């Protein structure tokens, strides 16, 4: 189900006619939501830079354009709300010699609208961060501690998201 909260209040509209809804997520990279919706009253309140909630995750509308294959539909493209971290800038120097992953992330998010929710990374390392976006700084932390970085709305997580279970995939023909 897709919901569209109004920018000027808490009213949520449910987009009942959305089709071809697709969420594409690549670990440590952008999360994209796309869908098509008919041109009607339901689409009148969709705004560029407005928000869409899909499966309890918040996305920012980046484009609303007529669909290439149908002039009676809009193609809507959204990015996960964490992309707003590109607009948040660290204008000071953060230097930890040595410091933990959690200490680095807490310093980066100190004046941010985003919250550090969980860190499952051990060890201390030297790190210096200055004059960059919050997202870029968190990506530097991810690389330095060789861990995964992921988001749920405005919550930030660092650790190992994926697990290798050594799964064997076998195939063949069953004969009797």
Strand content: over 45%
Looking at the structure, what is the overall shape? elongated
Number of domains: 2
Cα end-to-end separation = 47 Å
Global Rg: 20 Å
Tally of helical runs:
2
| SSE pattern, N- to C-terminal | EEEEEEEEHEEHEE
Number of E-state strands:
12
Spans where pLDDT lies below 50 across 5 or more residues: none
Spatial sequence of strands, sheet with the most strands:
2-1-5-6-7-4-3
Q: What percent of residues adopt helix (DSSP H or I)?
A: 10-25%
Largest pleated sheet: 7 strands, antiparallel
How would you describe the overall organization of this protein?
- By secondary structure, this protein is mostly beta strands.
- The protein has two domains: 2-81, no CATH class; 87-159, Baseplate protein-like domains (Phage tail protein beta-alpha-beta fold).
- The chain contains two helices and twelve strands.
- Strand 11 (148-152) and strand 12 form a beta hairpin.
- Helix 1 runs antiparallel to helix 2.
Give the helices and strands, then pairings.
Elements (H helix, E strand, L loop, with lengths): L1 E4 L6 E4 L3 E7 L5 E8 L12 E4 L2 E10 L6 E8 L8 E12 H8 L6 E5 L4 E10 H12 L2 E5 L2 E5 L17
Comma- or semicolon-separated keywords:
176 residues, mainly beta, Phage tail protein beta-alpha-beta fold, 2 domains, three-stranded mixed beta sheet, 2 helices, 12 strands, 11% helix
Compact overview of the structure:
The protein is mainly β. Helix content is 11%, strand content 47%.
